[in-house]
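Priority: medium. Attachment 1 of 2:
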């Protein structure tokens, strides 16, 4: 019997959401085909509280399934390889201070995740704090 890639993709996406504690309805799996290089997967988190989306992580593979398998592997160990950061920010034209949390290699990586796919002038960052290791 041949493997149904769509079923395998759906299964892996659910496993990823379950592992990081975010429902699939709050995640976006954005696949980008890179000619001659394969697929790149950008895992985006959707935050309904402040109506924004942020990059969780990106992986690559020969195809969508391989990129997704790499993401599943990443979420199994990311807490051991990253630090936790708290970012306080406000969207331009709004007066509400928002707080978001990121797992990242360093402060610049956390900010890259905050600014992913948006105009850098659309957000004002007030603070970035590395959280204590627990």
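Attachment 2 of 2:
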């Amino acid at each position: 019997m041949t493997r149904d890639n769509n079923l395998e993709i759906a299964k892996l996406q659910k496993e990823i959401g379950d592992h990081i504690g975010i429902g699939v309805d709050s995640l976006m799996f954005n696949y980008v085909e890179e000619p001659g290089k394969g697929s790149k997967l950008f895992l985006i988190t959707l935050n309904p509280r402040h109506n924004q989306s942020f990059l969780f992580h990106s992986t690559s593979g020969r195809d969508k399934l391989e990129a997704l398998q790499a993401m599943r592997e990443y979420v199994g160990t990311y807490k051991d390889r990253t630090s936790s950061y708290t970012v306080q920010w406000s969207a331009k034209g709004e007066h509400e201070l928002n707080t978001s949390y990121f797992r990242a290699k360093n402060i610049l990586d956390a900010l890259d995740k905050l600014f992913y796919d948006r105009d850098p002038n659309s957000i004002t960052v007030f603070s970035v704090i590395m959280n204590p290791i627990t």
